[in-house]
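quick one, 178 residues, struct below
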Amino acid sequence: VSTIYGLGVWPKAASVDYFERHHQGKLPTGIMSALTPGAADAWFTALARYGTMSFGEVASAAISLADKGFPMYRFMEDQLRDHANEYRRWPSCADIFLPSGRPPRLGEMFLQKDLASTLRHIALIEDTHLSEGRTRALAAARDFVYKGELAEAIVACCQNEGGLLTMEDLANYSARIE
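---
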């Protein structure tokens, strides 16, 4: 049995010393507590090692749900309502999780058009590299997330908000397998 850990790691600059000097030894909220995104690498690793389907095939239901929406369910409604003020601190988060300026209510359709577009783009990158073989196609999709245009956007967003994440942090990340 193998386990693929899709947990991110702290940015290289996020040392204990850094938090003691800049945050009185406490973990700050928001972008300063953000880890390197790990889930995507776990997906690509699982697909490359054990999968038979493409990323696009595996992600098709997620793309559809993000694009066309799904009815808001109780747990998510409660979480969005309970954390609405936190989402309001960051306009980009509020745009996603507080459409119309408030958390969606139970049964209302919840859409994530940008997420659908990003997942579609990753699938397209994979698809354009399929002639190089399945493994290379998955690697190209992964590179877009961790070294390419999406990585640049993630790092720019984090750094614009005062975060520590760098391109080096993303490029050096890989999911742990045990």
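Residues 7 and 38 are 5 Å apart (CA to CA).
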